[in-house]
Amino acid sequence: MTIILPPSPPLAPPLSAPMPESVFALTLALLLIAPLAIAGVALINAGLGRSRSAAQALLGNLAIVAVTAVVFALAGATLAGAVPGTPGSAGHAFQLAGKSWNWIGSGPFLMSGFGAAPLQTQLALIFELLSAALAALLPWGSGADRWRLAAGLATAAVTAAIVFPLLTHWIWGGGWLAQLGMNYSLGAGFLDPGGAATVHVLGGLSALAVVWIAGPRRGKFPKEGLSTAVPGHNAAYVLFGCLLALTGWLAWNAAGAVLWLHAPVAALPETILNTWLSAAGAILATFTVTRIRFGKPDASLCANGWLAGLVTSSACAALVTPGQALFAGLVAGIFTPLLVELLELALSIDDPSGAIAVHAAAGFWGLFAAGMFAPQKGQLVAQLVGIATLLGLVLPLEYLLFWLLDRVVPFRVDPDGERIGMDLHELGGGAYPEFVIHRDESYR
pTM to 2 decimals? Predict the structure, then answer.
């Protein structure tokens, strides 16, 4: 049951009638399962890094989730607002060309009155809290083996306090991107039910900013211009993380369909099916591409393809047919390994977790596919406006904030710390004390 949205005005929560308790209970249950997506990404981040940085990687994942939760609750939720039309979430708007543009939220301070808010608002804020955590987590894997823990926590705080709330309000809080349907009859406005833009593209672009600022790992790109392979230390972590992520993603996309598209319960099985088909198509495509290119399938790239399919589904699983979801996943699975190779070999971008290709690029593709397959007139244009906003506004803002933050809390660990590993340097002990961790040839 593909959800057909009206062209104008954009869909708004049915405030005249309270959310049925059965729908509330179902959505709450989905939100309790959704954090498995965060756990899966955390395991993947750790497995794709070096063994001498594994403990720091996992501790960083946990600490980033904690910092993001506190900062978003204290400050970010106020700027994000809540569901449009609910008490305390009107937002601030300005007039331009006779149109009202809602640009920032005005939610209650410190989440005050949360327990008395409508059920729709309570669930929306929980969803946003989880989304902020995952968005802040994604750059951590890209900065693996050279990014200081304090810097990772600082960037998570900045993302949760400023960038994520702004983007969330524009898309989920009734902001100007959501108003494109009402103001210009562009479909139902910019649509992002599963967080492809607010979570994955934001996280992937943040990863790009971090990699630009921190630079590559020592020895990754020798002076001769070649790229040195630095394989992840634990493929089992990576592949098991993919299975955990699938479970969380199925719940995540279903919950997003209920909260942001107000999908009926009868539409959720197709959303779940589309999520699975997108991931399945993507990993099969990546499996085939890597087998053709290297003679054997590559485990880490197949994991990246699987995640790319899930990211693509975040944008379109609730909006397309199963056949279209499978096609979207296949395309994501084809371009992901090629883009990972292009970024590394042609642009000298050292991204151990592949977040730039997996989350940013696949997120963009999913948002485009959602508009391309939409039956509503103007929906593709609305999606393109959102994509342009992410590239033209969000990326420069994120880079500027991180560049300024690097002057206060330096991102890059000193050379000796990178040589001995982040575990010993920052934690005083390794993840695998019973094993001897050999240093790389590049440090000799």
Answer: 0.92
